[in-house]
Each structure stands twice: as C-alpha cells, then as structure tokens.
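Quick note —
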Amino acid sequence: MNLKARDHFQRAADERGLLWWLNPLGKLWLRGIARVLELTTRFRGDQLNLTRITDQLVVGGSIPVRAYPRLKAMGVTAVIDLREEARDDEAALRRLGIELLYLPAPDRYAMSQEQLLQGVEWAIERLAGGGQIYAHCKHGVGRGPLMGLAILVAGGYNAGEALRLMRGQRWQAAPNDRQLEALVAFEQTWAAHRVLAEPAEAEPAPR
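Predicted structure written out below.
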C-alpha cells in the first residue's frame, strides 16, 4: 500500500472508530479474543452455530450435511463458504434448492478484495430476488462475519456501522486486525466499483 493509500486508509479507520484496533496492542487483543471465541463455538450441542443478522443475511460457522435441511427451513437460499480447510457439499445443497459460492481463504486471514467483491455481487443478485444468504467459515468468528460485513457495506452501511450491527446480533463475531483492514479497504473498493458500474450520463441531443 503506497503512502497516499495508507493515509486514506488510516483516516477511514479513524472515522469509523477502528484505528485503535489496528495498532500493535489492538492487533494482539483482537487475535487473542478471536482464539477464545473460536473455542466457545465448539460447545453448542445440537444448536446450529449461526446468527441471523438481518432478514436476509445469516452468518456463522460450519454446518454438517445432516443439518442442511435446517438451513432450508430457515429460508436460506444461497450459501457462501469461506473455508480453505473444507468445503460444503454442493450436490447436497443443490438437492435442497440452495446455491453455493466457494471463496476459500486461510483460517484467521481475510479474503482478497477480489473475493469480497465477487461474494458481494453474487449475494446482491440473490438478495434482490428475495433470497437469503448464509455466509460462513469454520467457527463464525472471522471470515464469515467479514463476508457478511462486506454485504452490509454494499447495502449502505459504513464499516463501523456494519461492525456494530454484526456484533450486536452475533457476540461471537470478532474479526481480527487483518479482517478489519480488509473491511475498511472494501469500502473504497465498493465505492470505486459502483462508480465504474454506473452508466455514463447520456450526451444531450444536438439542437
């Protein structure tokens, strides 16, 4: 990241109340908290490790194949799997009428800006049709919430607002510094993408 881009990033992070978390002490704290929360997701019994964030967005951790019908019953129509270490059974989901997008990223790391943009565009198309998205990783602490946050940003939230909503609904959501940096960067990525996607204004007809 060049100096100009870094300055823009720091200003954006500061405006959203995220800058402290991106200093060395904040990074250590975030990574430690994420590790602890990963452990808590193992003790849920028969309860699915997921949380509804909005009417159309659900975020969480991995779901066993035998529980796919429960996703269907919740109204989920599309799944974004962010795990590099595993992958959902696409055929089993398809039999239930659920689509799958696989965007793998290493555990405790962020997806690339290209992956976030791909996931958001894919999600928006399905949300516009009344669908429901389930974005998940292994534990539902970092990667899954990051994808959900990117979808919220595309829906009009800034990074800070999206994070407050996410954490207010799902206490296990604790993106680390790498993932928060990716989220703040995605705001700029999405803004630039929207500008490029907007049709140019028609030239006035000659008189």
